[in-house]
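Revision sheet: structure tokens.
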Amino acid sequence: MKKLLKKSPEDLNKELSKKKAELRDLRFKAKGTRLRDDKAIRTLKKEIARILTAIKIIKK
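Predicted:
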């Protein structure tokens, strides 16, 4: 979390869009075939939540 707070909001938004695209790709893969890493979707959701939290803290 400390690393995220040191970044600028623009960098966080870029990282957020990358993570959301990654999550979308994983969801499509999960529908078609079995994922090798079942925890990947859950981990990505947590990372997205951390980034969103950092953005809210920085904007205050």
